[in-house]
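TL;DR need structure tokens for one chain.
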Amino acid sequence: MADIEIRKDEQRSRYEAVVDGQVAGYAEYRDRGEAVQLPHTVVEDAYEGQGVGSALARGALDDVRAQGKLVVPTCPFIASYVERHDEYADLVVTGS
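>> reply
TL;DR here they are.
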């Protein structure tokens, strides 16, 4: 597996995982002011099981943290990733 580059496409409101110049997957986001909602993640079939989803989750969450915002992980994959990685628990908006 080649390196996975995570980039933010603000025009499409998504984080993209790029492998060898190809978009291997993406995580949509919605800016909600103090928080960022992550509603949907897609990994292309050809890249399933190669760490693309985890790289997307990590990249998106790291960017949210860098912005000083909280996260609303409505995407089941992102929510599950946060549950398995305690270092991101402090980002989650509670009571949403």
